[in-house]
Design brief:
Layout (H helix, E strand, L loop, with lengths): L8 H4 L18 H9 L17 E11 L2 E10 L8 E5 L7 H11 L4 E4 L11 H12 L2 H17 L5 E6 L1 H13 L5 E5 L7 H4 L6 E6 L7 H13 L4 E6 L15 H19 L1
Parallel strand pairs: 3-4, 3-5, 5-6, 6-7, 7-8
Antiparallel strand pairs: 1-2, 2-4
Helix pairs in contact: 2-4, 5-6
Length: 283
Amino acid sequence: MRRLLPFAVSTLSMVVLAAPAAAQQVAVTDDASRMHGLHQHDAPVPSGVPTAPRVEVVSDTVTYATIDGKPVRGFRSRPKGAKKDAPALVVVHEWWGLNDNIRAATERLAGEGYVALAVDLYNGSVATTPDSATALMRASSGNVAGNRANLAAAIDYLRSQGAKKVGTIGWCFGGRWSLQAGLVGGSKVQAVVMYYGSPITDPAQLAELQAPLLGLFGSQDGGIPADSVKAMAAALDKLGKNETVQFFDAGHGFANPSGKNYNAAAAESAWKATTEFFAHYLK
C-alpha cells in the first residue's frame, strides 16, 4: 500500500514525469549491456563534489562473510563513538564496484548516524572502464544465489554487531541488489532504498519484501523505463506493501558525482528524501 510519510508528503509522494522525447535510448540485450550504453563515456573518478560526512566517522575494512570457503570483505564506516546498537545500513555499490566513490558515500551515510557497511558483490575486483564494469556486472548478476547469500550475511553481520534495525541502499546495479537485500532479509530489514536500479516486477519475488521501500528514479533514464518502475509499484501495491516511488527530472546515474549525468539538484533532493526515510524507519 503506497503511503505518504508524515515528515515529507510533498517530497516523497508518487511523482510521475513524462520522459522527454530526447531521452537517451539504449539497445537492450541484458542489464550489463544496457548499463554499458548509459555509462560508455563515464569514468569512476571522484569529482570533488562535496560529500563529507556531517560528523566525524571512523572507517575500516571488515570480513563480514565466508562464502564457498572464501572470506568476503567490505568497507565499514560509523560515527565516532557510535553506540553498539546504532542503526545500520547495507550499502551496495554501483556497477563499477566497491571503489572510492562508494566509500565516500558510505562515510556520508555514517555521518547521518548509521553503522554503514559497503558490501562487495565483485569478489574484490573494481572496474575502471565501461568494458571491465560490463564484464564484472554480468558475472555477478549471473550469481543470484551467491549474491543473496552475500547480502544475507551482511545483514546478519550488522545484527551480530549490535544493530537492532537495518536498512539497505544501493545505486544502479546496486539499486536492484538493495531491493534483493530487502527480499532476502525479510523481517531483519526495516527500510529499503533503491536508486535507479532495474525493477523487480514478479509478485512471487516481491512478496518476500517486509520493509518499506523508497525508489528514486530519473524520468529521462533511457535504461530504466518508467513503465517498468510503475509496474513494480503496482505489483507492490497489489500485495499491500509499503512503497513510495519518486521520479526526478534527470537521467540515469543522476546521484553519481563522477558521471556525466550527475544532476546536483536531483541528487540533493534524493539525498534529503533518503535521509528522512531512513530516520523515520530506523531511528
